[in-house]
Amino acid sequence: MNNEQITAELKKLLGNDRVSDDEKVILECSKDYIGFRIFERGAGKHFAPKAACVVSPRSAEEASAALRFFNANKIDVVPKTGGSSVTLGVEPIEGGVILDGSAMNGIVDFNETDMWVTARAGTPLEYLENYLNKRGYTTGHFPQSLPMAHVGGLLATRSIGQFSTLYGGIEDLVVGLEAVLADGEIIKIKNSPRRSVGPDLRQIFIGSEGTLGFITEATLKIFRYSPETRWMRAYGVKGMRNGLAALREITVGGYRPAVVRLHDPTETERDLGNLAPEGYCILILIAEGPSAVAAAIGKGVEEILKNYETVDLGEKPVLHWLEHRNDVCATLDKYKYYKLGAIADTCEISAPWSKIADIYEAVTERMPREVESLASIAGHSSHSYVQGTNIYFTFGAMADKDKPECAREIYMNIIRVIMEETLARGGSIAHHHGSGKYRTRWMPEEHGSSYGLLYRIKRALDPNGIFNKGVILADKE
Amino acid sequence: MKIVVCFKVVPDFEQVLKSDWENFSSESDLNCAKRIINCFDETALELALRIKDDVEKDGGFAECTALTFAGELKNVFSSALFAAGFDRVELIKDEGTCAFNSLSAAKNLAGRIKEISPDLVLTGKQAGYADGGVVPFYIAERLKLRAIGEAFDAGFAEGVFFADIREPTGGIRRCRIDEPAVVSVGTGQIAGLRITTLKKRLATVGKNIDIFSGATACKTNSFSEIKFEYKENRRECKMLSEISEFTEILKGSIKR
Ligand SMILES: Cc1cc2nc3c(=O)[nH]c(=O)nc-3n(C[C@H](O)[C@H](O)[C@H](O)COP(=O)(O)OP(=O)(O)OC[C@H]3O[C@@H](n4cnc5c(N)ncnc54)[C@H](O)[C@@H]3O)c2cc1C
Fold it and tell me: Cα angle at A288 between A283 and A292, to 5 degrees?
């Protein structure tokens, strides 16, 4: 079927207003925020493959009808909701279809007794959070992309928020969900506080990045919202290795601040004002919950930090971070770095405590040697667990503004160094952005002997392979 | 040929807490805000380097000095300036609390500029909110040099410097600069100071900034007379291409 036929058939099936083959709409829906694509768009170039059309169902039933059609005709489909992907995850397959869930939005159920809220896949997280805040609740989920991301995408990418050390990632927050399979079957996984009835089927879809089904609705936990009882403090901590050891002691010691962020000396000097002495990191901490709990966490953490060459910087740097933490979202389409001839982005990995400092040092030492046009490499830890933490590398490299087609190679060279060093030292190559299409080639090594199982699940749920080709799974097994 | 650029590292005013704006005073602690080279100064710094490139392409020689008054200059800025191509980076230490005193800043900067005796002085038009944009003119006055305001571009062509300026009436004009002058740079055509590779910046280790003592301590702070008001993005240094009316004017009149 050619593009025109696909579009015409879909219009017949769902109505003209549900299908668009307008070039502008297709371009907008194909926009991924991976660093090299932003650079290319800065130069006015759109190298993403071109979809035949964008389909915007209003209900699970409409999504089901569309998927039955795609499946019967073996048409490639890429789901999308908020479009804040940074992994090429929302880029279409040439001649395929974008299944845009953003028209399926709104809150379906708000349940204060059972402490959950059910929202449709296209509900913007910021809308949901504001809705809950007004009623004294929160999702506890604050990714930096809060102003951009939607419920469906958050589940699909296994996303995480800045307050995760207390609330966990999205996988800890989903109570139940609804999804449509490749053959159009609508399945609902019911809401339950916990159950022992076989494997947890929610987890098939959480983190599946649109390869196994189209998520249409989710029920999320809610928590009482009391920002006024927060304990907040910032510290200067000498050196990254020492800082990571301090983070370990905080989490292993049984403390659960909501926010635990350790910015390395480069980020501290470059981005965080005139606060810490040279060579120091900045550690940002927030504990929340009932005031006695928040205060007790604060007291315990203060005691621990006395053993780690720290300088108390007070509360103000935390207020500062809170106020400006998501500013970047408003600047993404302004091409600030392109104008300066630079590609800038981030890449997140995780590792056990015994390995994380080695990975951080290996990457930051190797990168300047290997990437000729590197302008900066730095990092921070922002999500900690009893077993380990993540590092969120932040990097920039120079690229020729007149040759935007070269940006990808420079970018992938940087990613390669991070992936190789992480794998070689026993870390995991994606902490929360997902694989997308750009990390797929390292997935076999990441998963080892369990990688084949992913193909088996894929074959069972999507035998025609219509969903999100090239994401997580390489084309050939 | 010598070029001096006056610049200042300032808090990024877009990053100052809203609550700080509401109670702004000379005592306000802005230490949490990210430090940046003031955006007008960044444009002036980049213009100087482009002139240097042009002069050197012509077979000439240009020496660029980046000069700042008061405060500290962190390594992150000095290494970026050296790597970008500045031959010297100089800091005049503040002897008192002169940070917001335009006269004192001009006096100290002019003193050092006189010693260097450059062919061209570039400055950003305004360092911060407390600065009324008068420093470049005070400098010119003290040095008895011609002052050129509201430049958005500057360069070197056919053996002379030039500056393209915005007229108050909305037009634009090119000024030939055939004797030393002070050019105050406003919203520019370029995005900012060039980015350099980490390798280049690491290679500047060992290049030190030159530190001078300020000539006079200021007794009063003109700051107390200033009233502040916060407006988002007020100081965003826009690319000229984003400002449609200038684009139209430019299309018609500049052939470079
Ligand atoms: C500035 C910025 C900051 C960010 N910060 C964070 C952060 O702090 N934490 C974090 O985890 N991530 C972060 N991200 C990444 C991104 O925001 C997350 O991955 C987010 O979860 C994506 O949600 P979305 O609705 O925008 O999804 P989209 O971009 O629309 O899609 C993302 C992926 O999910 C699939 N998908 C989308 N909707 C569905 C659906 N309904 N059913 C099945 N599959 C679907 C898509 O095919 C794609 O593979 C950031 C991104 C940006 C640009």
Answer: 115
Contacts of B202 in chain A (CB under 8 A): 368
ipTM (interface pTM): 0.85
The pLDDT score that the predictor gives to residue A338 is 95
Query: What single-letter amino acid sits at A105?
Result: N
**pLDDT per residue as tens digits for the range A235-287:** 999 999 999 999 999 999 999 999 999 999 999 999 998 899 999 999 999 99
The CA-CA-CA angle for residues A152, A153, A155, to 5°, reads 70
In this prediction, residue B227 carries a pLDDT of 52
Q: Three-state SS for A80?
A: strand
Q: What is the predicted pLDDT for the residue at B94?
A: 82
Judged on CB neighbours under 10 Å (0-12, 13-18, 19+), A43 is middle
- Contact between A99 and A214 (Cβ < 8 Å): yes
**pLDDT tens string A150-208:** 999 999 999 999 999 999 999 999 999 999 999 999 999 999 999 999 999 999 999 99
A314 touches chain B (CB under 8 A): no
State how far the Cα of A39 lies from the Cα of B157, in Å rounded to an integer.
32
**A85 CA: nearest ligand 1 atom:** 29
Give chain B's domains with CATH numbers: 2-255 (3.40.50.620)
Please tell me whether the overall predicted TM-score, pTM, comes out greater than 0.80 for this model.
Answer: yes
**Ligand 1 and A99: CB distance under 6 A:** no
d(CA B49, CA B70): 23
* Backbone phi, psi, residue A388, to 5°: 170, -160
Cα B107–chain centre separation:
16
Phi and psi dihedrals of A3, rounded to 5? -55, -45
**Contact criterion met (CB below 8 Å) for A375 and B197:** yes
- Tell me the CA distances in angstroms from A52 to A49, A93, A302, one per residue in order: 10, 9, 57
Shortest Cα distance, chain A CAs vs residue B144, angstroms? 36
* pLDDT tens for each residue of A33-57: 999 999 999 999 999 999 999 999 9
Whether residue A468 contacts residue A386, with contact meaning beta carbons closer than 8 Å, is answered with no
Predicted confidence (pLDDT) at residue B127 exceeds the cutoff of 90: no
Q: Are strands A310-314 and A231-238 parallel, antiparallel or unpaired?
A: antiparallel
CA B185/CA B177 separation, integer angstroms:
14
* CATH numbers and ranges of domains, chain A: 103-224 (3.30.465.10), 227-325 (3.30.70.3450)
Range from A199-213, A458-472, B120-134 carrying the lowest mean pLDDT: B120-134
Of B29, B34, B239, Cβ closest to residue A272: B34
- Residues A20 and A26: beta-carbon distance below 8 Å: yes
Would you tell me how many other CB atoms lie within 10 Å of the CB of residue A421?
A: 22
